[in-house]
Amino acid sequence: MDCYIEGNLSASLFPDILEAASEVEILLYALEPNCYPKGNKSRKELVILTEKEVHQKKDCLIGSGFTDGEGNYSVKVPEEYMDEAICIDFKLLKAPRQKSTKHKPIQINVRTLKPVWRINDYGKVYKYNYSFPFEFWYRIRTLFDAWTIYGRINLTNPTNKELSGYKVIAMDVDWIKDDFLGEAITDLNGNFRIDYDSSDFKVTFLTPLINIETPIRAIPGPGVYFKVLDEYDTEVYVEDRKMGHSDTRKNIHRSYFVKLELNPVFASNPRKM
Questions:
Q1: Which of 104, 103, 99, 75 is nearest to 89 (CA)?
Q2: Does residue 60 contact residue 32 with C-beta atoms inside 8 Å?
Q3: Which three-class secondary structure state does DSSP give residue 191?
């Protein structure tokens, strides 16, 4: 009978907001003595492995698979290992939704599992869901140079207008030329997400010859302001670019949450989804 370890992988983008950890490789290893440096099998949870450690255990790989867009995965386990303890690792090529990264893949040793199998219609299954804690996930996103603005639009007065379909544009204020960070369309609840990296705001008029922004910031991070467009690409909400220099908007963190208040008198119907 076939055996599968399956579950869902997520991560804390903010302390109270989870994101699906998509396109992550799930790696299962047998706990063979020759695959691990002495004393390594009982290390603490969540260890970023060195290239040497990854190479040392490669011959003990017994199964692999990838998470889908929702973070779900299913990996088949050879029958001869169904009664054995199994090591599970997660390997990331980049952060979820990230366009690209210059960082090498990151492989994380999560823990040792001793599956308790349950029988279903297609075999034996062990469920293992995992969510990366915020502090660790922030570290991973920092290594990959991943930045995210997660936000929500609200209408300032009671209204029957839909919150979905508005285009939100994020800009980084600069002395020479403001940088376009990205754009997103709001969902039914008015939520939006914009993903970018430091190359999107560390750009000057001399790029690519010089990639140091003017002025040089003591703390890395853009100074943001926003525009919101309706279905006709008419601006229904525009912030003064000076907002990018305000205390709450300058040098924002790589995981940043914002609420934008729109006046429904000026917010015409959003674009259809």
A1: 75
A2: yes
A3: strand
Tell me if 244 sits within 8 A of 224, measured CB to CB.
yes
Q: Which of 91, 106, 85, 90 is nearest to 33 (CA)?
A: 85
Q: For residue 266, name the pLDDT band (cuts at 50, 70, 90).
A: low
Query: Could you give the CA distance from residue 126 to residue 214 in angstroms, rounded to a whole number?
Result: 54
The pTM of the full predicted model, rounded to 2 decimals, is: 0.84
User: Residue 26 half-sphere exposure, CB side, CA atoms within 13 Å?
Assistant: 25
Assess contact for 67 and 9: CB atoms under 8 A: yes
Beta strands in the chain (DSSP E): 3-14, 17-20, 25-30, 47-48, 61-66, 72-77, 86-92, 106-113, 118-120, 123-127, 130-132, 147-155, 167-172, 179-185, 191-196, 224-229, 235-238, 255-262
H/E run at residue 53: helix 51-56
Token digits of residue 68:
């889908």
CA pair distance 11, 14, nearest whole angstrom: 9
Question: Which of 244, 171, 197 is CA-nearest to residue 94?
Answer: 197
Per-residue pLDDT tens digits for 84-132: 999 999 999 999 999 889 999 999 999 999 999 999 888 899 999 999 9
Structural domains of the chain, with CATH? 3-144 (2.60.40), 147-262 (2.60.40)
- pLDDT, tens digit, 9 for 90 and up, residues 150-183: 999 998 876 667 889 999 999 999 877 899 999 9
The dihedral through the CA atoms of 239, 243, 244, 247 has a sign that is: negative
Report which of 176, 195, 177, 194 is spatially closest to residue 185, judged by C-alpha positions. Answer: 194
DSSP class of residue 251?
T
